[in-house]
Every structure is written in C-alpha cells, then in structure tokens.
Amino acid sequence: MIEEISACDERLVKVSGAAGTGKTEALIARAARLINGGADPSTILMVASTTFGAQALRERLRAALGEDNAPAANEVAITTALNAAVAVLGTPAAREATGRKPRLLAGFEHNFFIEDMKTTGQSRRQLKNVMDLFDRHWCSYDTSEDWLIPGEQTVAWQRAQEALGALGAMLPNEAPYLAARFLQENPKGRAQCGFEVVLADDFQNLSHAQQTLVCLLANRQVMVAGNGNETATCASPLPHPDGFTQFENLRNGVTCFQLETAFNNVKATAFADALAVAGADSQALTAQKRDGSATDITLVKWNMAEDEFNSLTKYLRALIADREIEESQMCVVVPNKRWARTMQQALGKRGIKTSADGAFPSLVGDPRDAARSQALIAFTKLNLLANPEDVVAWRAWCGYGHQLTHSDTWGRLLEYARQQGIPVLEALPAVAQAVAGGTEPFMKAKLIAERYNQGREFIEKNSRRKGFGLTRAAGLDGLREFKGTLDTLAGDEDAATVYAVLRDKEMNPTFTEGAHILRISSYENMVGCNYQYVVITGCVDGLMPVRDAFEVVSTDEDRKRVMDAERRLFAGAVAKAGQELMLSTFSRAQLELAEKTKMQVTRVRSDGDDRIALLRPTTFIAEARNATPSTIGGQMLLSKYDLA
To answer: Which of this chain's residues are annotated to bind ATP (predicted)?
Structure first.
C-alpha cells in the first residue's frame, strides 16, 4: 500500500495506521517519488512534531533517494510546524500585517517575561492560569474577541502584548496562531509562502492552529499521517487529535489509506498495541499483520539503580562490539535529565561516544541567582555581542541576580519610553545620560543606567573578538552546557556566528550526526524517529509513569489524564525498535536518589547506615498481559558475554 500512497496525486490524503506500520515511510516514499519524477525539491514541505523527528525525516529521505539523488533531500523544507510559522511571520508582508517580529523567546528568556507580567498585581497562580488560558486559545485557534473577558484577563492580555511588543519578541504558542491568521486573511501572502505539496507526519500531535497553518501552506496537495492513539505532547502543549481522526469528516474529497501491517520488531509492536488497547477509551487502532524481526524483547532486572548505569553500559559496550553495531542505530531512552547525564557519563567511560541533545533542554537556571545562572549570563553576553539591538538580551542583562529580576524597574523604563515616544533601545542610553547628569527619570533609574553602561562597556571591549578569545570573554568556556558545541568551532568565528549556532542548538536541537555516535533521548523526542536497537532505562513507577499518575492528592480524572499521556509516550518508544528492544528496571535505590527523582517508593528499609527505597517495575509491563517482554536478571544478562 505504501507504493500506492506514494503515487497518489489527490489534493487531500489521510494515512492512518497503528504504531510501526509505515506511516512515516509512506510520506518519505511520496516525497522521493515526486523528486525522482522531476519535482523541484524546494516546493515540498515535510512537517514533523519535533526537530529530532525532522532530522530523522531528512536522514531517511536521503536514503530513499539513493546515493545519486541524496543531495536533493537538503533542498526539501523539512521542519516543525512552529518553525514553519516563524518562516511565514518573517516575510515582509507578514511583518507589516502583524506588526510583530517572530523572535521567539527561549525558555529562560520566557522567565523574564513572566516576572514582568507579575507587575499586573496578580498572584503567581492567577498569572499561570491566565497565561495557560492564552496558550489554550492560541493553540485552539480562537480569536480573542470570542473569549477574552473584560477585567483581569483583559489587563493581563494588554500587558502581555505591550511587553512582547517592547521586547520585539513572540511566544512559541502565539506564532502558529498569528501565522495561520495571516495566511487565511492574506491570499497574496499565502501564495508567496505556500508549497506545492505538504506532507505532515504525526498530525495528531499538532495544535489546531498548527494543523490549520500546515493545511494553508499547501497549494496542490496536503497528505497527513498519524494515529489518534499515539498523541503526544511534543509539538504543542495542546495537541488536537480530533483534527486527524476527523480529518475526512471536516473536509470534502479526502482520500484515506489505512496501513495494517507492522514492520518493526514483531513483539515490540505487539507490546505497543497491547498498551494502546489498555489505555483506549474506544476502539484502538492496532496492526492486523506483523512482518518484522521476531527477536525477543527483554526486561532486565537489576538490584540497585547504580547497576543500571554501571552494568547495563558494560553490556551495551560488549553488544556493540559483538554485533558490529553502528552506534547511531542504537538509542537509549531516559526518563529525566539526571538519568541522561549519568548514562552519558557511564557510556563515555566505556569508550562510547554519545549525543544527549535529545534528552532535555540544556539552558536552564534561575536568573534571580547569579551563581545558578552562569550559562544564562554567558549566553546573554554573547547575544549582546552578536546583536546589540536585541531588546530581549538587554532585558535579561538588566535582570540577573535580583529576586524579582528588576521587573518593577524594567516596567518603569517601558513607561518612560512610552511617555517619551521612543523605543526601548533609545530609552536605555537616554536614561543612562540623564543619570550621568544627576537626574533620575524614574525610581531606581540608576540601576538601569548602571546595567546598561556595564553592557555597553562589555560590548565595546569585546566586539572584535573571534573564536576562542570570544568564547572566553563571554564566559562560555568551561560550562558543560556549551562544551559539545564549542568543540566543533574552528576558532575564527565572530560573535554573530557563534550565537547563531548556540541559539539554534537551544531552539532547534538535533543529534550530533555520525555513524559511531549513540543517541540518548527523552520519550518525547522519540516521536518521529526509528532505531534498530532501543534500550529504555529507568522503567520503574515514578519515573515512567511519573509520580503524578499515582498521587493521592490528585483527582481520579487528573491521575487518568497523566497515566494515559505517559502510556502513549512509553508505547511510542517501544514501537520504535526495528530489531531489538530492551527494557531496564531495578528494585531498589538510595532513598535520597529516589526522592530527588520522584520515584514511587513502596517501602523504605535500612541497610546499615543507608536508607533504601523499594520500588516497582513500571505498571505498563503488567498492562500488556500476554505481550509482556521476557524477564532476565542483570547478572544473567552479563554472563552472556562473561561480564558477570
């Protein structure tokens, strides 16, 4: 059927199927057929849920095109819905129509925006609820006129628009909404931004706004692939599975294909299907046939959590050598950032190169505490050197190291700029000049002047630096958040180049490419990817599913919602194993580790001076019933290679 899908020229096409049935492969086959048939690759848009999924699409498209035509894969626009929105909003017509810049706030920059929003007088909880409300309506593609209520909501909305306008920035959930509205209301802009063919993978993961945007970008054909049972919160905080399951009911003339044969590991896809059935409120979509590797899937039981890091990595080293496996065909799935770091260190000690970019965000910290935000400050310094006109960088620079990030003072600066009728970039030096002359235009203006002068002095002193001298001056050297990227530099790059690389890594992370680099991933970033060997670590309750799925203080509805979301993520990772799947669990952990990582502790025992937490394997093992993996003890596994 994949061949039939690849040849389908109908305007609206829907491809559905259970996990591992070749939905992504069908989209790749369609793109390859078009390119090999003479289509201009630049007229094709392929949309993935994550940047890692987009990277996987490009890798697989290269392989499908063959060695002679593989370079054409680089000309295809393969991206996420969010980045597609940014591209639309970056066009002159969209900039003029919206009056906004598509400069997305990074995670840590968003923290400053939230601090500034607190000046509305709302409590942290109220503000969170209001911002969540905004996100929901942006994602749901609702116009503000239909839902915005006069009062606190309107005040917060106006404050948000003013703050973002002053920063020259945009929120990630806002961008797809604005881009879709622009295309819908501007036919000329739509014609300029559109693609002949749009192929969207895991369509169910996109928000309503993202789905609308994707469809509006298609001039001749839109082909969507997915499965409502595989919905994951990775492309949007509010995915819209009904937009996929009801795709043909919402539109006329949709050609539908349903794939029925699973091609990955037979037992892994059966395991994933069993979990889909266990969690489905209605009929789950499962494979009718299976045609893949019949290798057993294994649950390895270790005694202590430390054994998983020390002994499992020892086994993986032996397995890679014995099977002559290319490390890039193996992915280790981790439940949290701590697991990612420890697993990366343990694998490194075994001589295995890894890329953990798919695990969790790299730039984190508390901007209110300078000691805990060294990486953030270094990134902002580089930002100022690369683009001294970036108001977001100046906002961050003025806020580090203060309990409230100087949000009140920054708010007074914005008010001063409004009163003077000048942009923030002109207000900053104007305030500094006034303070130097002995006048404070507003309360604590001296603080803004001091920070601005420090920033200008830093820029003037280091603006001509390049390469390693530049990274030292910005404070990037020695910070683990940047080490992997800095190691790839030639040593003669200017600030704009280095900043572009680091910002792209933060906003659009991908795995380091190389045949002998093993990949470490979170569950969310397994979406859209596929590996011959998948090893899922930390398979204990509390890590997978997370503790919120068991909390007695939550309502039954909340626990079910969390459990269902976690089950879909787990099943999705399980189904990505093309040849072999291994799950790793342990029965005990140091109580301190268990509490810090929020494992679901069943009992606590004393072992000498140590307090040991007793744990359960992930509840999803029992849910799969007859499809559960075979179990083997850790020492028995090691004995296969005489490692015990």
So the answer is: 17-24
